[in-house]
Amino acid sequence: MLWNIRTLNLLAFLVTAVAMATALLYFQGYLGLTACPLCIFQRVGMIGAGAIFLIAGLHKPANTGTRIYALIGLIPTGFGAFIAARHIWIQGLPPDQVPACGPDLAYMMQNFPLQQVINTVLKGSGECADVQWNLLGLTIPGWTLTVFIILMMFQLLQLIKGDFTRKG
User: Fold this and answer.
1) What is the pLDDT of residues 15-66, one digit of tens each?
2) What is the DSSP letter of 25?
């Protein structure tokens, strides 16, 4: 059977790899867009999800293992979806309610405790409210949230059904 759980997990990994390549090569490299702190956190979620999908695809677990990988994978995928939704919310704020711009993530990581960095990033900043690109009415975090939701649906299916590609 062409579509087994291993192939589907590797395909999901490929989706995350394409998303990261798009972010790094197209948006950052070609268009010259700078990733805001919320974008960087979304990338962390995408990389984490991709790593879980890759490991699951290479391992090819049975039903219980498939469920365990799906459960573990929901952590970075859910994290990324939450950050993307927060980013969309910040982009939708009226201009007078947008948080002020703060220091960049690299500076904060070097000079602040991790808890303060996370709290500051989750509040967002003025740069996070900038809509620098959109396609079909969705901004970058909108498309990222769409990818995270699709990945989460696949993980939930695995969590509920295990290896749903096996017969019997």
Assistant:
1) 999 999 999 898 888 888 878 888 888 999 999 999 999 999 998 888 888 9
2) I
Using an 8 Å Cβ cutoff, are 67 and 159 in contact? yes
Q: For residue 133, what are its two tokens?
A: 């690109």
Structure tokens, 163: 């290896």
Q: How far apart are CA 159 and CA 163, in angstroms?
A: 9
Q: What is the pTM of this model?
A: 0.79
What are the phi and psi torsion angles at 135 (to 5°)? -140, 125
pLDDT tens, position by position, 68-117: 999 999 999 999 999 999 888 888 878 777 666 666 667 777 888 888 87
Torsion, Cα 75 165 144 45, to 10 degrees, reads 30
Instruction: Tell which residue, 135, 28, 148, has the closest CA to residue 86.
Output: 148
Q: With helix as H, strand as E and coil as C, how does 9-20 read?
A: HHHHHHHHHHHH
